[in-house]
Design a protein that fits this description.
The N terminus is likely disordered. With 443 residues, the protein is mainly alpha-helical. The protein has 2 domains: 218 residues, Serine Threonine Protein Phosphatase 5, Tetratricopeptide repeat (Alpha Horseshoe), CATH 1.25.40; 169 residues, Serine Threonine Protein Phosphatase 5, Tetratricopeptide repeat (Alpha Horseshoe). The protein has 15 helices and 6 strands. Helix 10 runs antiparallel to helix 11. The two termini are 20 Å apart.
Length: 443
């Protein structure tokens, strides 16, 4: 399969800097010289995070596939067709992260205690397992089953002959990596780095996608029960601030390590290209005090009267990307409680109302005659408002089997389940003979 060579870093040790450091790429690497001691192991791990920074914007941009975000120059095309000629949600970038993680996981275990302490080795390996598990989870929820590679690419044909695995096998690999990460990582909370609580939160999401409702509830509860995580008020604080109690895993940027993602959202007079804007009808819902409530702070109106997104708009490139936050855990638990074998509708409604209450919108009126279907629709809608620009909307509707109902009236293509997942980018198929004939049906 297509191989991606790890970027070696000129970096300080992890303990000296909390941000993700800049990287210096090298086109060739001596496999034996990449990771030789604690400093180089830490530097290689930072390279994995750096790769995650690179593809995380593609995950957020998946909202273009749904009804929350549109291209500024095609605003009437609310749910656009997906084509194999597009970037495809960051396929190559995700595999780059996997290959970098594979280098860490391949080399660090053999380092002696004199070169890296046992505690530091566990920390480095645990973070690498988490990041690889996240990468495989992102791949499977976007593309279905993919090629699974667990060894680093040391030469161009290192993974020749690796075919696509099934969706179930890919989910299993993601879960296996998260299980290893949970064994190795401490409970010490760092909102920008993997720890046990990032594992718990991602497991809750994975179990939601794989319909393991009791486990989704259990792992969401682990984060919700930790007083270090809270729904912050006012609502805008979670994205105007930095590393607030809302965050479980936040990709934070700084003026010395900026993100250019704001250029996709900002108009030219604010230093951007104005590629994306909130869809007009969705913006209206957010501005409705009974639906969006204080979440209207996600938007601001330009002098031209257009509503732009404020969440990623800082012109110095310091807007964070939120991969896991506590609000989602409440909504995961609410859905899991409603769907499990012995539904807890009262508990589900209570979790839903935690989100509604923070957003200052009317609470869900749960009464004994409330049906599970009524509650699940309310949760679906609340996920749309609460997580509106974080890459969840399209995938949420697909995983619940409602894409034809919700999106099919807007785009007839979405009436067909073939189009509920993304195509493998054609450029990657052309580069990788093992993907020839493996394109997702319909593309």
């Amino acid at each position: 399969m297509k191989n991606y060579i790890i970027l070696m870093l000129i970096a300080l040790g992890l303990s000296s800097c909390s941000r993700i450091l800049d990287t210096e790429p090298q086109t060739t690497i001596s496999d034996e010289a990449v990771i030789v001691d604690q400093k180089s192991a830490q530097a290689a791990l930072i390279g994995v995070y750096d790769g995650l920074q690179g593809y995380a914007t593609n995950i957020v941009s998946l909202d273009l596939a749904g009804d929350n975000v549109v291209n500024f120059n095609a605003q009437n095309n609310v749910v656009a067709n997906k084509t194999a000629s597009g970037s495809g949600g960051g396929f190559s970038g995700i595999y780059s992260v996997i290959n970098r993680a594979n280098f860490v996981l391949n080399k660090v275990p053999s380092l002696s205690d004199a070169l890296v302490s046992s505690a530091n080795k566990n920390q480095i390996l645990g973070e690498a397992y988490f990041l690889r598990g996240l990468a495989y989870f992102d791949l499977v929820k976007i593309y279905g089953g993919v090629q699974i590679v667990l060894e680093p690419a040391t030469k161009a044909d290192a993974h020749k002959g690796v075919k696509r695995s099934t969706k179930e096998q890919t989910y299993a690999q993601a879960l296996a990596d998260l299980n290893k990460a949970e064994e190795l990582l401490p409970t010490t909370i760092n909102r920008n780095r993997a720890n046990k609580y990032t594992v718990f939160a991602l497991k809750a999401r994975l179990y939601l996608y794989t319909e393991k409702w009791e486990l989704a509830e259990e792992f969401a509860t682990r984060s919700i029960g930790n007083t270090s995580f809270k729904l912050v008020k006012p609502y805008a604080l979670f994205f105007t601030g930095k590393n607030t109690e809302e965050s479980i895993f936040e990709l934070a940027f700084s003026t010395s390590d900026p993100s250019s993602f704001y250029t996709n959202w900002n108009s030219p007079d604010r230093g951007g290209r104005h590629d994306y804007i909130p869809e007009r009808a969705f913006a209206g819902l957010l501005l409705n005090p009974n639906l969006g409530g204080s979440r209207k702070s996600l938007l601001f109106q330009t002098p031209a009267g257009v509503y732009d997104l404020d969440q990623y708009s800082k012109q110095n490139g310091t807007s964070s990307i939120f991969l896991l936050r506590i609000a989602e855990q409440y909504l995961i638990r609410a859905e899991a409680r409603a769907k499990k074998a012995a539904p807890d509708l009262a508990g589900s409604a209570s979790d839903l109302n935690q989100i509604k209450g923070r957003a200052d919108v009317p609470l869900f009126n749960y009464i004994p005659s409330t049906t599970k279907e009524e509650l699940l629709l309310a949760i679906e809608n609340e996920r749309r408002f609460e997580l509106g620009f974080e890459g969840h909307r399209f995938l949420d509707i697909v995983r619940t089997g409602r894409a034809a109902t919700v999106f099919g009236t807007i785009n007839k293509e979405l009436l067909k389940p073939d189009f509920w997942i993304f195509p493998i980018p054609q450029s990657d198929i052309l580069r990788d003979p093992d993907l020839t004939g493996a394109q997702n049906p319909g593309y």
